[in-house]
Design goal:
Elements: H1 3-6, H2 12-18, H3 26-39, H4 45-58, H5 64-74, H6 82-90, H7 93-102, H8 108-114, H9 122-126, H10 133-140, H11 145-153, H12 162-171, H13 175-182, H14 201-215, H15 227-236, H16 240-251, H17 264-277, H18 282-291, H19 294-297, H20 300-312, H21 315-326
Length: 373
Amino acid sequence: MPPSVAVAPDLSGLIELSRIAHLDLKPVILRVQTDLFMQAANRDRSDLQSFAALAGGLIPIVDEETAAIVAEKLAPFPDTPPSVLAALAARGGRVRDIVVASALTLSPGLIEAALRDGAEIGSAIAGRPGLGRGVVADLVHRGDPAIDRALAANTGIVLRGDGVGHLVGRARTDHDLARLLLARPDLSAGELAPLYLHADPIRREAIRETVSATAALRPCPPPPRDLGAVLIGLSAAHDVPGFVAALADGLGLPGHFLRDAPDAGTRYDLLTLGLRAADLHEEEAVYVFLTLDEAVSRSAERVFDLVRLFRTTDRAAARDLLSAILDRPLRERTGSADAHRPHHAPEAAKIRSAAVERPASRGTLPARARKSS
């Protein structure tokens, strides 16, 4: 006699009970079959399929207490078919929460079933340690702010690939999400460059150094001629809208680019990066800080902070930081295709040193009007 037959349970009691009118045996059958499934010495493919078919048919129709008992047994059990866990999660409520908290792995089908009723369970799923890469990607692509923050706060997973880009992109306008991402040890300074304005001074310095190292490998096109002189004149006239529009136009940015700053306090940081990208001299930048906006010029500490940012950021890094923060490229070199001709190319004409045009000096800065007390 085969071993499976020799140890087969005696179900005659269930047969007798089935003859009693109005007695619902579905909960009993599900619990008994669950115990038998878990106690089996071996479970081949046909056993798994048979149990999945039986349990999948009974789970949606048994009472809540039975479903919860079965969920507590099957969720942490490694051989439970994924379809059975998905059926339990689809019930919602307490049963779903047991599965989400106890399942060894969360398959996409289980997650889909758990979120089906619209309950705010996504953050609980995203907060579980050890989530697989595919599960993390699926959660990220849902675009749910609560799920995003739970993933960012979950140090039991590793964020990588496209998921990081999506989270960082959404964090540009979500300070809480940005703060959580900036605190993660598995994200590099380069990946966090778009969140520069959200970062603390130490993190900012690391981001600037990383961006500067890569920016130095690429050519940095010159700014439009006389842009500095135009900006100085507009600053002297206290024409803030005109100043911002001229700077934006010179860099190839939309006129409202300062609105992308997280708050009013970081707009001048963004403006300072723009001044550095526009290749203003330090004394010109200081003049802007002291004349353009009285609210800034009244605070010596704020002016010193802006000057420090200007000094510690090279022009190429400022361009790349602006591009990362605003999620758009800055204007590249303008002019015709033959605007650049190498002096030492075989076909290049000899250029006499006397014919080389020297750049015109910007001249002196306009004097600041002294206010009488």
